[in-house]
Design brief:
It is a single chain. This protein has 14 helices and 13 strands. The protein is α/β, with parallel strands linked by helices and about 325 residues long. The strands form three sheets. The chain has a six-stranded mixed β-sheet, with helices on both faces. The protein has a five-stranded mixed β-sheet with strand order 8-7-9-6-10. α2 links the parallel β1 and β2. The two termini are about 30 Å apart.
């Protein structure tokens, strides 16, 4: 029988895993130049244009150079953080989980969109000329449709539609159900739909809003077929081994930017260029609901896998259910405080 002490230890271990509370380390990272990772939601040139004013203000506030770090996909930024090429980064929730788990990092702030929404929504979009009017239409015509899927580390472009649509609602494998599947970022998928290069694609409300403002003639032909439940806004993540004073200064800048100071109006204008309002304080707690979806999707995938033995399937399911239980237990604990 498990003792109370053992249960307490188990709970503490779960908390450590899910919140990645900082552990003691002999190494403190105090870079002379800060590298800020930016996930590839659109072209590098567009990202650079939108993010540079913010990074320049951050550089002035910190009294040190702040340089953008771009990669061709989300994994590139995760690996950049893992190998100390990136110190702070903007991630989606799913890619933040990968960074927290694989690169031992932590969430410290959360984006808020320019309208003050606490999150955003995943979408399935199509061109108005396809004749597709619902997800049932998409499933029925699967073998004739080309699908533009998102980056595998994208929350809205991959994880959320994979769970709610392909796993829960329809129980299909997109790779075998549709004529073809290609993976790309949000901007590329939007353009592919607008130009009829794919029949339907994943996207999100933030990117679609931007597309409507930038390319209204193309955007008027894009139709939304499905909208997900609310997704928590994207987090900012930093390396846990950064110098404590530097982290304090970074957080002070991020949370005060656009809220106070002589340059408040300028800062709000810069944030608006990123479709953002001032950041909120955050922690790894915001990843908890996304973790549960991630594990639930893994469980359903194993349950439908006909290529593994029943014994192996039961063992994997038991392991995943234990992870889900830890997530729920920790979530309940957080909700009590």
């Amino acid at each position: 029988m498990i003792t109370s002490i053992t249960r307490l230890v188990a709970l503490v271990c779960a908390a450590l895993m899910l919140t990645t509370v900082a552990v003691a380390s002999d190494e403190v990272l105090a870079p002379k130049e800060l590298s800020f990772g930016i996930i590839s939601t659109e072209s590098t040139s567009e990202l650079k244009k939108n993010w540079m004013p913010f990074l320049q203000d951050m550089s002035k506030a910190l009294g040190m150079p702040v340089k953008p770090f771009f990669a061709s996909d989300y994994a590139g930024v995760i690996e950049g953080m893992r190998f100390k090429k990136v110190h702070v980064a903007w991630f989606g929730n799913k890619s933040a989980i990968e960074a927290v788990d694989r690169a031992n990092r932590e969430v410290f702030a959360q984006q808020v969109d320019v309208d003050g929404n606490p999150g955003y929504w995943s979408l399935i979009i199509t061109h108005k000329s396809t004749g597709l009017n619902s997800m049932d239409d998409v499933i029925k015509r699967g073998k004739e449709l080309n699908f533009g899927n998102g980056d595998v580390n994208s929350t809205s472009g991959y994880l959320i539609p994979s769970y709610y649509l392909w796993t829960v609602a329809y129980g299909i494998d997109p790779k075998s159900h549709f004529k073809s599947v290609r993976n790309a970022n949000h901007a590329a998928n939007l353009m592919a739909v607008a130009m009829k290069q794919v029949d339907f694609a994943t996207n999100n409300t933030e990117r679609l809003k931007k597309f409507k403002a930038q390319k209204p003639e193309l955007a008027k032909n894009v139709k939304v077929l499905w909208k997900s439940p609310l997704i928590p806004s994207d987090p900012l993540v930093w390396r846990k081994d950064l110098d404590r004073e530097l982290k304090s200064n970074i957080k002070a800048f991020i949370l005060s930017y656009g809220r106070n100071g002589d340059n408040k109006e300028h800062a709000l204008k810069v944030l608006a260029g990123l479709d953002l309002a001032p950041y909120w304080d955050s922690s790894n707690k915001q990843l908890v609901p996304i973790r549960e979806i991630k594990y639930a999707k893994e469980k359903m995938k194993v349950e439908h896998d006909e290529n593994i033995s029943q014994a192996s399937k039961e063992e994997k399911i038991k392991d995943i259910e234990a992870k889900i239980a830890e997530v729920r237990q920790f979530s309940d604990m957080l909700n009590r405080y």
